[in-house]
Amino acid sequence: MQNTDKEKKIAAKEAVQLIKDGMIIGIGTGSTVNYFIEELGKKVASGLKVKGVSSSTKSSDLARSYGIEIMDDFEGTMDIDVDGADQVDGNGNLIKGGGGALLREKIVAFNSRRVCIIVDREKMAGDRFGSFPLPVEVTPYFASGTIKHIEKLGSHCKLRQNGNFVTDNGNLIADCEFGKISDPCILEKKIKSIPGVVEVGLFVNMTSEIIVGSENSAKFIK
Ligand code: 5RP
Q1: Digit-coded pLDDT (tens) for 2-41
Q2: Which of 112, 122, 161, 219 is deepest in the core (most CB within 10 A)?
Q3: What percent of the chain is predicted at pLDDT more than 90?
Q4: Which residue has the CA at smallest separation from atom 6 of ligand 1?
Q5: Is 105 labeled as catalytic in the residue annotation?
Q6: Which residue stretches of the chain are H helix?
Q7: How far is 131 from 141, CA to CA, in rounded Å?
Q8: Does residue 1 carry a pLDDT above 80?
């Protein structure tokens, strides 16, 4: 197992400790969350009673395969959301969407009382925040035109898999290289104001805590 995988698994195991009987859990997407689902599945198999709202068909399928009940919709607020991230800045803001699930991930995070992000150490970007191309979900209709407007904000964008990557919502992902992102709040607002943009992979002031896995232990930040 690669070091980063070990770190992801350690962070995921730590997050499972936060899950208590009766909780409604938001479930993110990605390889780190897959470890969380696996660990949660073990607890469910030994009697823990929880329900989940998942951010992708991939996570739903995996969770169900471990016997975790997944709801497609939920009127209330989830007790906790556990998700991964592509990069974290010094204030706990995130770049997400490497797996293309950013729209549902943001909906799930917004509707959760507590948002717990699980990452390996490489994701803690600090001043490098923005070196991971920012994923933006755009409508297939007029996608090239929409992208031109995002580029005017100072980026170079490429449609993921030349436009062949389709999200669970039937949209496309533009991966946008901005270089360093020092004001994620303003950038998120500017990108979201462009018609054709469905959602931006910047998660600003949304996290309750970041659990960073390291070789043998996990560290809570925030
Ligand atoms: C998916 C995401 C993931 O949380 C992000 O890409 C991290 O993935 P991984 O845990 O595989 O490194 O935002 O849309």
Answers
A1: 789 999 999 999 999 999 999 999 999 999 999 999 999 9
A2: 112
A3: 96
A4: 98
A5: yes
A6: 3-16, 31-45, 57-65, 102-110, 143-151, 184-192
A7: 28
A8: no
* Residue-wise pLDDT tens digits, 174-200: 999 999 999 999 999 999 999 999 999
- Binding-site entries for substrate: 29-32, 83-86, 96-99, 123
CA distance 220 to 209: 7
The pTM score is: 0.97
Evaluate whether 118 touches 213 at the Cβ level (below 8 Å).
yes
Residue type, 195: P
Nearest to 44 by CA among 29, 25, 66: 66
- Three-class HEC string of 35-96: HHHHHHHHHHHCCCCCEEEECCHHHHHHHHHCCCEEECCCCCCECEEEECCCEECCCCCEEC
**Which of 7, 14, 39, 105 is the catalytic position?**
105
According to the model, what pLDDT value does residue 216 have? 87
Centre of ligand 1 to C-alpha 67, Å, is 23
Say if residues 167 and 57 touch (Cβ distance below 8 Å). no
